[in-house]
Amino acid sequence: MAYVIAAPCIDHLDQACVTVCPVDCISHDPAADRKAYIDPDACIECGACESACPQGAIMLDSRLPGAWAAFAEIDRGWWIDPEWARAAVDAVDAQVA
Amino acid sequence: MVVEIAPRTFADGPRTFADGPRGVRRAPDLADNAVLVARDLLSPTVARLVVRPDAGIAPFVAGQYLALGVRVDDRIVQRPYSTASDPAHADAHEFLVRHVPDGALTPHLWTLPVGSRVRLGPPKGAFTLVGDDQRTHLFVATGTGLAPFLAMLRTLARRPHPPRTILVHGAARTEDLVCRDEIASLAAGGLPMTYVPTISRPDDPANRAWKGRTGRAEAVLGSVLRSAELPPDSLSAYLCGNPGMVAAAEIALLAHGVAPADIHAERYWTAAGTTA
User: How far apart are CA A78 and CA B22, in angstroms?
Assistant: First the structure.
């Protein structure tokens, strides 16, 4: 399991999560990304990010509502293929909106 | 929900969401940046690790934590630990680490040769002393949750007029009531302190010689509040350790009449699937 950053982060990017993450496993490219991404292989599931997020965008992957289920794969995918993750964010955002 | 990316051309050609990401996973930029300079076994299951950052000590405040990590199979495994060091005098960070036999990190920390390279993150966390509060400081810890309080007590001991302090430290076994000599030396050095160690498993054969208090830290807290004759608005409480203890101690303090703003808590995380 790992925490995942879902749709409410899109175009907000508050970054409180980045500040509190004890293991620095949250990142994004400010020039290209609309949201931040959690590295699921580094996340230690402490929950500090979930408490800190003012948007309520962060939750355990097992608790993601169906409409946001894709964000688990998107967060994992960003660390492999950021371009794919950004396209997926655009697609999910368009479908959820 | 099926996400569809309508025909879209990526750098390597048209793809859809279902095709998944392509490439090699990027490793986070987490270089080894510190040295393990000492490891002292304080009990069979608790060690004090001393770690010195290559670049010197970044400014920190008593009560903060840092991520300590080691390279395992070419990947960094890290966990956050509160530093016990005094911010004013530290040239290294002291961590109290409990050994978790099937943990992802601590078995490595136990066998890592002194002098090994490790990864240390930046100091983080808001579990710190509040201003120049002169009211009684009540610290309640379980196990290695003592670490941030050592840093805080060392900080308070440097003040010209330190406040009265009460330290309740709970552990399952006598041997895990670590750092008693240092606590005694802080008290002997002039810090007004009442030290209340307690053992939660008095029937354990390992505790046969224990003559002190018994019971969980949160249970002992009630009698401490009564015997110390502490009006609710005369204290500032700091809780650190097992999340169950923290929750129960918060309830006890609120029942005593302590304002929520005067209760500060740091939970040592026990998320499912993650072991230290």
Answer: 10
